[in-house]
Amino acid sequence: VQSVAARLICDREEEIEKFESEDIKSKNVLLDSNYIFRLLNLQTTFEYQASIETWELLNKINCNLWVSSTTINQIVCTIQAVMNNYSATTFTFLSNYNSESFSGLISAIIRQRLSKADLQEIINNLENTLRDKFNIKILDSQDENTFEFDKEDICSLRKIKEGKPEESIEHDVNLVYIIRNHRPKHVYKKSQV
């Protein structure tokens, strides 16, 4: 999805039209937490707009959009961590800043003047919003938690994501395993997707 978003942002219009007309063999797209945060307008305005354009393109070419229950859990935990680490005073204090000075969830909190109650409502409605508003299917958790992680996979991702929490690294490896499990063969070229 991020490569599709990059194409929407960076490429010329005719290249996007060419992409739309290509015969994509796999029509299943597994979405990650960053993309979901953007789609829910919980990051910067620019990222939100890019995610909506990407979502529209994926729907236009009839892709099935999926999210894993571990990704949903990661989103909930991230929002809860922000809620637990900020008091009502902090939320009021942040509202005096320009949202573009911040990134991620804090940017959205400032820009939309979100309160703890607003964030709790987002958590409470998360699965329904994904299903009903965006037609995103939630992957059955039985399809996810059956993997034993290869130490080499964890180590290589740890190098790439240096400084990130272990849960974040395990989540990303889990997504790779889900994709491997559902993909019939390795994909080496975009034309094989």
Q: What gap, in angstroms, lies between the N and C termini?
A: 12 Å
Please indicate the percent range of residues in DSSP E strands (runs of 2 or more). 5-15%
Order of helices and strands: HHEHHEHHHHEHH
For the secondary structure, the number of strands is 3
Q: Treating each run of at least 4 consecutive H or I residues as one helix, how many helices?
A: 10
Mind explaining what this structure looks like?
With 193 residues, the chain is mainly α. The protein is 62% helix and 7% strand. It has a three-stranded parallel sheet. The chain starts with a helix and ends in an 11-residue tail after the last helix. Residues 1-11 and 188-193 have low confidence and may be disordered.
